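Deliverable D5.2: sample structural annotation.
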Amino acid sequence: MHKHLILPIKEIEKLEIKSVYRDWLEKWYHDLEAQISNGDLAVSNCYQGIITEIILYGKIKTDWLGVLDNYLTADDSMPLAYSETFGKRLYNFNAQWKQSPVHALYTHWWIRGLFHEDRKREELAEIVPTFIQSNGWIYNPNVSETQIRTRMKSELMMSLTMGAKILKHHNQLDKYKERLLATINGFSYTGYVSAEHFRTEAYKILDFKGNPLEDKYNDLIKDCVAVEGYSDFSIHSKVDDYMGTAKRTQRDKPIDSPLISMYVYYLSQSLNESSRELVKDKLRSYGQYLSENPMNIPAFRMRDINIPFGTDITPLEVISSSYLVEMSKHD
């Protein structure tokens, strides 16, 4: 099964899952089945549902093409991020729920690839050039008109990487490669593990060797050490993208993320041997901690608001935790 760019695990069907994680995934999947029957879901639920089925049952069980066609495709055939029921509950006004960001396009394309829907994938690939902006970034401006400097850096880099992946698969990348490379090379160091992870993935897709920012990754990884694992960014170096001033961080705490910790592992592959070993030691320790405290996966929470941001933890974090637990058992 081809890996999704969000979760960099090869041969996920071979991943061993602790019983507590399996129980959690089974409950999550049961809840997802109810969401599907009500047409109340996001395309990210579909992707996570598929990998959960592969892990739990060794095969894809659900008619995901039917789910996409019935709930997540607009009348003009555009791939949607949210079903109408989910979107209206999320936004609660007008038709703002009807969105087609690059990550939704990519996930539709990825899912249809699992079912060998080659013609439909080609149709989705034809959308990508319409999302390439004059500045070289790949995004759908109809979703948001936010200025580049205040857009989330990780989403910008992820969207470009996903668009480039689709173009390369359909032999359409050469026409845009120079512009995309210029955009990535001109985008300064972000200070975010996720953004730099997607930058390195984009370079691989574009067959570009010699990431000019690799010398910064050792410090990035050190700065993003959290309590047990790694967080996406250094709390103390947060800067307001609009004002250019440091943000208040006295009450913020770094958040351990199993998924981000996996990104750190892949980023560390460009470092020298001693730095790679330090990361591996940290991840082994984190895996051992998760083995003993399997559900101690903190949800992101907005400061001063005692509710989870989003849906608490997700299968992505649980599966990443399983991977780290398994990694800790090996030298």
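Annotation notes: Residues 259 and 317 are 6 Å apart (CA to CA). The chain is about 50% helix and 0% strand.
The annotation will be released with the project's public dataset once the embargo ends.
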